[in-house]
Design brief:
about 200 residues, 10 helices
Length: about 200
Amino acid sequence: MTTQILLMIIAAYLLGSIPTAYVVGRWKAGLDITKHGSGNVGGTNALRVLGAGPAVLVAVTDVCKALLPTLAATRLFGGNTWPTLAVALAAIIGHNYSLYLGLRGGKGIATTIGACSVLFPQQIVLVLPLAVLVVVFTRYVSLGSILLVVTLPVVLYRNQASLPELCFAVVVALLGLWRHRQNISRLISGTENRLGRRK
């Protein structure tokens, strides 16, 4: 691994680690969002705790935290190569396990969307609307999020993606499932919180 690749991976992780919801919570309401709602530093908890405007800001910024380093990596390393995919994954991991919050963080869906918008634009255009429809009809954000990460490797496989791309998608899916493990338990038990209902 060259120094340039290593520095890009570290930079992507540090950028992904910026806890947008925490920063916006402090700025807009003077509160620590990790101590409110679900305690998650993602767009859904920001919506429940801070409201629609701050939540949109959080979601858009979280998307950009992965989109920008992934875009930079494609320019430096070309296409969906191992180094580019490693940079994208580092940004997602940074969001999920933020260095600035003692390795706490979000669940990585917005950052996954940001990275995949660069890596797999045609596939994300197919998968994302399906996930949104699930959220609209069920009001379970977690269910739509889980569907998104699980469907992505399937779509890539059917489109004959390369081995590095498939490996990336499978890792992202497993990471997403792990981060949503408590949501999965609540979905099974029927106690999962629906969108629009405050905790």
